[in-house]
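Subject: mismatched residue count in predicted assembly?

I count 721 residues in my input, but I want to confirm that the predicted structure covers every chain. Input:
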Amino acid sequence: MEVKHLIDIDPSGILVRYNVKMEKEMTPEEAAEELYPKDSMIYPIAKAIFEGEEDDVVEGLEKAISSGKDPISLIDDALMVGMGVVTKLYDEGVIFLPNVMMSADAMLEGIEYVKQKAGRAPVVKGKVVCHVAEGDVHDIGKNIVAALLRANGYEVVDLGRDVPVDEVIAAVERESPLMLTGTALMTTTMYAFKEVNDKLLEKGYRIPFACGGGAVNQDFVSQYELGVYGEEAADAPKIADFIKEHGDNIVKLREKFHKH
Amino acid sequence: MAVTRCTKMAYASADDMVFGKAVTPVKTGLELEIGAGYTTPEVNYAPRPEAGASKEKLIKEYERITTDIMARMVQIGAPAVVLETEHVQQMSNHPDWGAAVAHAQKTIMEDYHDEYGIKCALRHTIGDIRETRDFLALRGDKYSVFMEAFEQCAQNGADMLAVESMGGKEVFDYAILRNDMAGVLYGIGVLGSIDMEMIWQDIASVAKKNNVIASGDTDCAQANTAMFIAGGLLDKNLAHTLAIIARTISAARSLVAYEAGAVGPGKDCGYENTIVKSIAGVPIAQEGKTSTCAHSDLMGNIVMQCCDLWSNESVEYHGEFGGTTVQCWGETLAYDCALMNVALNSGNEKILRDMFVASDIYRDAQGYVLAYQNSYRVGQAIAKDGNDIYLRAKNAAIECINIVEEGAKGKLELSRFEAKALADAKEAFEALTDDKDQFMSDCLTKYKQEVKVFKPENYDL
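Triage response: the counts match. Full output below for your records.
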């Protein structure tokens, strides 16, 4: 029995459960089913990616390779297709982040498997360097960003947390990424972003520097020249895609991604 | 200090719980009493980004903050105030920095107390600095710096010591992003509790030695991470039904501070505090609508129901039209407390409490479970097996699921996603063993393999 409360109210007058009202008729599984590829070799791999079942992904890949498919081609033709279903449904609000994380784990396992089979590395969409600001050890946001970038086909150079400014600069010099990301939880640690920005400029790098996390806000990120504010972790792959398509003009990136 | 497990409820019934009153009030600071029949604003703040550049800059920043708050409280006639300084990492990594800030703040507070008689106290929340770049390092070299930070703050003006400890977070972070309920239970309920047992015996000893108050810990690093990821009604990052399960498990964890010698008040961001208060009887701080400067949640009013301190969580120090941010938010808190104190003085506190509850209880599963009647039930589930840190955390989760299921048969609406996540979680918890040793052994094997950064030696495992 529901516990009775002293003041019995009709909640409809004081709140609207927009999430319940807006819920789509279709279940996530039904929505995914409509998006899977029809090819009988590819379908089970894409489905296993959606379900986050690592063993099933590898089993599907084994079968496809035995039937003559090129291992590396299966990354784009099967694994990324399955992941595409996942990210589409996440963007549409049909599935939750944990589903994406589990699918990303399964996809990475699949990629490792085909790399072993092929004996060579696949071509990626681009490289992104990710880090947590110096002095800050809170890295769940960075981990989500890295997983979502990988899920969208980017190679992630993950520098970890509490990363010294000079180490960030060195990684940019070494890796030549298409963008850099930084996350921070606290106000006094996010100041390191400005130092990263200034040192990058000193050395002549004009690379987009996507920043977000806890206390980080658009006003702060806008203060330094390379800063692009990401309100959500899911913005990171969208910013990377935008750079690939439209170039790395910071002004245009801000026009697109700054919301306030 | 010894650990004494809580196996009984502090309150005979949920209805006995109300804001401003605790079974065991706490005297602290300059003539302040917490939980003794009145509520008090607790103002919390963060320095501006550039203030961390040097010790001198930081001290100056906190002097400004402290003066601003004390001045505004006097200007509006607030009878009492608590200041909470949550350490930025520089202050805990360099204990003399934290000590210098505490000293500077307390000097200003003493001046205001001497001149105007305003009751006040200073809480310092030490940062959990026990991490290396790659791993949690809960035991070892960093531990001595961590404890030194408590010691020096206690010696230099802090009236209350607190922390938001991180034990279990490495497993929790992995598990919560994968809907892994066993991992959430292991991270918060077991690993978090093991770590708290160690640190809180030592913090309580430091407090006793220096004649200050060991106040409490929150599961900010885990349960608030879940709440933050869950977000608003339309966010799709984590089912809110899972966030509240993490929260109820966190009550079994946060309770450990009091079992190891802390006396309260519990920290503001511990939304699990109503559950903890029901078991331990300690005063608690809470934050809700007044913490929108720091984050959004779905429990703005309901968490005022049993608070003894009313906080704004954290606001960056800068200017607003109405003054500096600490002045604006401090004033808002003080007016909320005035309303609660009028209710207490006029015998209307239970009516006001129930209005706070009624305004939010159906907003979301999180608020529903944290309503004091339901919190009390979770408290009973924890106390029932209070001697077993695993079982009591599991009990909390299962009782939480029962409460949400009952609510969903009434006026609490769940989306299909929330209901599905709840059903999956129920299945996961029901499949778990009742044997702590078995659970520990299974989890040790599983998470050592799956979570690269999990180091069992942090927990003496």
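The longest helix of chain A spans residues 97-118. Marking this ticket as 'not a bug'.
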